[in-house]
Amino acid sequence: MTQDTNISASPRRIKRGWMNLRVERIVHETPDTDTFYLVDADEGGRVFDYIAGQYLTFRFDDLEAKPLVRSYTMSSSPCQEPFAAVTIKRVDGGRISNWFCDKVKVGDILRARGPIGKFVFDPNLDQPHLVMVAGGSGVTPFVSIIREYANKLGHPLAPRQMTLLVSHRSQADIICAADLAAVEQMSGVKVITTLSREDRRSEGFWFGRLDEDKLSQALTGTYKSATYMTCGPKAIMDQTVAHLQKMNVPEACIKTESFES
Are the C-beta atoms of residues 27 and 35 closer than 8 Å to each other? Predict the structure, then answer.
């Protein structure tokens, strides 16, 4: 995968190896999720060019006897200046995710390398309709992708249409809720949110866990013209892939990225 898919007007900035990133701002997204805005600690501004959907690998040398390494997908878009951002959700027993949310503060310097990853939209290979299915924090690469392409739909290097189907426990758990609500009003973008523990159907949400019926309802009519990306809990990813296979979607049109590895 090349970085030709990045249609940001900014000049390319590429760094190799481990970088010093300064935490410029922290936004509390949900009761258990924070977004950390990062800039180049040495030169200022955004430290690197990247493709929406890629991730950073962080290294922590002082938390335990041996260095710890963790990867987090960027939720920011290449068209956003002058920072990159990662959105991190607490998980039970999560050594680094919980440390991020508890200990990291504005001004801290973090070590990271990247950008890395092929879980991106490729205009040379992918279908014009991009369908994204996520659960919980698995929505973060799709937030990045939607931020990058929502106002560029139909551009030769962008999708023509995007659909996001995402599952959260409650309305309070929706990650980057304001951004997704804003793009939902844009032509060519469809956002469907199902809440598994809170019935807010009167407000436009779906209710219940993501299941076969909801996948069918959301995806019917797309199977011959879409590329599918799914990310999040293994159960949701497996169910989505099984549904697409049942509908005879080619393997080349299905992309997965696990947050549980």
Answer: yes
The b/e string for 218-230 (b: 16+ C-beta within 10 A; e otherwise) is: bbeebbeebbbbb
200 and 229 in a single domain? The answer is: yes
Q: What is the CATH number for 7?
A: 2.40.30.10
Reduce the DSSP state of residue 228 to 3 states and report it.
Answer: strand
> pLDDT, tens digit, for every residue of 18-61?
899 999 999 999 999 999 999 999 888 777 889 999 999 999 98
Give the pairing type, strands 33-40 and 84-89. Answer: antiparallel
How far apart, in whole angstroms, are the C-alpha atoms of residue 139 and residue 120? Answer: 13
Interior CA angle at 62 toward 58 and 67, to 5°?
55
Residues 143 and 250 in one domain: yes
Give residue 9's Cα distance to chain centre: 21
